[in-house]
Protein: Isocitrate lyase
Organism: Paraburkholderia caballeronis
Amino acid sequence: MLLLRRVADTGEARCVFDCVTALQNDADLLRIETGKPHIAQIGGMVSKIRKVIPNAKLVYNNSPSFNRTRTSASRCVTR
């Protein structure tokens, strides 16, 4: 598995490009992470990837705790 880190301000197009490139260079599985769980966002990226690589296998973590520790911590109020 290859983990590609998102480059700031490059957006979904860069993620799709990186995934397609990795799959074309023999990656067999990709895991994509987004800032917040968002099924429509990941679905759109997967559709674009599968237009180029129809049999692409991708893993997406949509767990309620996924990637929320950072955002939740900033909203915590201490008493």
Q: What stands out?
A: Residues 72-79 have pLDDT under 50 and may be disordered. Residues 11-73 form one domain.
